[in-house]
């Protein structure tokens, strides 16, 4: 990896506001770096989660603490008009409830002392093609599920001696297999549950297989009650959190926590940190030009995603140093760019 070229490319991602191309970068630096050099940067080797860890490790070590949390979530960057491949293909978007064409990216971010740092990522590729007998269409599938990829990422974080006690998950990753994996590693989880998740509030009910939907349970708010999830042998603390949506409607979130020493306030306060991964994904798409690369091959497309993740990390570091959120920093760049363009336009008009 050529560090100088990587720094240049990621600075370009943060400072440009249109399509990000090798020729565009070369023009920005007035030809001091050729477009072929940037093309080679994106095509010669594949950048992986290990490369990301090498870049972010010093920053992580400076902010990590025992109160740090590891947060997992995936996001889809739609690429409707790009040719289909094992990387750019059809994925179910569980947020919108529909199938979309694009890049599916699974991220692990570490949140500690107010900073949110990406520490691992995986591109969800679907190289296996098969015929769906029901629809008689060719479809794709992955060699590993997102749950399997997540467990491998947790293993990598543990090998890297990352300090964290809790893993925060949404309902997509709230499987008994994941819960067992996390607790077997002597870590705890706080996970959202789907409304139809079956639970029992007593050991006797569990043994008699008398389970109730979690959204039909009658237990008071502001409390944590012990219960058992169907298919998961260990007890958990269950919490019901009622909140207001932006449109004024009321939402209800059910959480399960493996730490039986916690209480309602501790569990809900910790789980609120999961929102940081959503902020990270928004910054990745809005501030680091994730979608604006015309790269054509699986390797160059994947490497552009890596560069966007690293660029988002660099912006987070600047945000901490300047005590401004990343979106305000990028807006400041846009305003300064507009001022420069406006001044240049005035100069041309005066000269004419």
Written overview of the protein:
The chain has 352 residues and is α+β, with helices and mostly antiparallel strands. It has three domains: 1-45 and 296-352, no CATH class; 47-164, no CATH class; 168-267, no CATH class. Helices cover 41% and strands 25% of the residues. The chain has helices at 3-15, 22-28, 35-43, 49-63, 146-159, 176-184, 203-207, 264-271, 275-287, 298-322, 326-351; strands spanning 69-78, 89-93, 98-112, 115-123, 128-132, 137-141, 166-169, 188-193, 198-200, 212-213, 224-229, 236-244, 250-257. The strands form two sheets. Strands 1, 2, 3, 4, 7, 8, 9, 10, 11, 12 and 13 form an eleven-stranded mixed beta sheet that branches. The chain has a two-stranded antiparallel sheet with strand order 5-6. β12 (236-244) and β13 (250-257) form a beta hairpin. α1 crosses α10 (298-322) and α2 (22-28) packs across α3. The longest helix has 26 residues, at 326-351. It is globular and about 85 Å long.
Summed over residues and divided by their number, the pLDDT gives a mean of 94
**What best-fitting shape do the alpha-carbon axes yield?**
globular
How many domains make up the coordinates? Answer: 3
> What's the β-strand tally?
13
Q: What is the CA-CA span between the terminal residues?
A: 47 Å
Run of helices and strands: HHHHEEEEEEHEHEEHEEEEHHHH
Helix content: 40-55%
Q: What is the overall number of helices?
A: 11
Give the amount of beta strand, in percent. 15-25%
- Helix/strand-derived category reads alpha+beta
Low-confidence stretches: none
Topology:
Layout: H1 3-15, H2 22-28, H3 35-43, H4 49-63, E1 69-78, E2 89-93, E3 98-112, E4 115-123, E5 128-132, E6 137-141, H5 146-159, E7 166-169, H6 176-184, E8 188-193, E9 198-200, H7 203-207, E10 212-213, E11 224-229, E12 236-244, E13 250-257, H8 264-271, H9 275-287, H10 298-322, H11 326-351
Parallel strand pairs: 1-7, 7-8
Antiparallel strand pairs: 1-3, 2-3, 3-4, 5-6, 8-13, 9-10, 9-11, 11-12, 12-13
Helix pairs in contact: 1-10, 2-3, 4-10, 9-10
């Amino acid at each position: 990896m050529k560090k100088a070229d990587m720094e240049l490319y990621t600075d370009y991602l943060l400072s440009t506001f249109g399509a990000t191309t090798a020729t565009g970068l070369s023009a920005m630096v007035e030809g001091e770096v050729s477009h072929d050099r940037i093309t080679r940067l994106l095509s010669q080797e594949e950048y992986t989660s290990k490369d990301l860890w090498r870049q972010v490790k010093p920053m992580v070590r400076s902010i990590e603490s025992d109160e740090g949390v590891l947060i997992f979530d995936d996001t889809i960057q739609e690429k409707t008009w790009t040719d289909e491949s094992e990387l750019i293909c059809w994925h179910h978007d569980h947020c919108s409830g529909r199938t979309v064409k694009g890049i599916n990216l699974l991220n692990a971010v570490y949140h500690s002392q107010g900073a949110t740092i990406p520490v691992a990522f995986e591109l969800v590729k679907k190289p296996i093609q098969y015929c769906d007998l029901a629809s008689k269409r060719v479809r794709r599938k992955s060699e590993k599920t997102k749950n399997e990829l997540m467990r491998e990422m947790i293993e990598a974080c543990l090998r890297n001696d990352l300090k964290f006690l809790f893993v925060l998950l949404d309902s997509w990753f709230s499987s008994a297999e994941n819960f067992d994996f996390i607790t077997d590693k002597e870590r705890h989880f706080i996970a959202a549950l789907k409304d139809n998740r079956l639970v029992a509030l007593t050991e006797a009910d569990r043994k008699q297989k008398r389970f109730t939907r979690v959204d039909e349970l009658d237990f008071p708010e502001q409390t944590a009650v012990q219960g058992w999830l169907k298919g998961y042998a260990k007890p958990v603390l269950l919490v019901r959190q009622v909140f207001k949506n932006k449109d004024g409607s009321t939402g209800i979130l059910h959480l399960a926590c493996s730490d039986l020493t916690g209480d309602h306030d501790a569990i809900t306060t910790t789980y609120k940190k999961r929102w940081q991964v959503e902020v990270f994904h928004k910054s990745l798409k809005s501030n680091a030009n994730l979608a604006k690369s015309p790269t054509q091959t699986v390797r160059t497309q994947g490497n552009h995603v890596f560069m966007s993740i690293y660029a988002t990390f660099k912006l987070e570091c600047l945000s901490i140093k300047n005590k401004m959120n990343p979106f305000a920093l990028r807006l400041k760049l846009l305003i300064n760019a507009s001022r420069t363009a406006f001044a240049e336009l005035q100069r041309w008009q005066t000269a004419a």
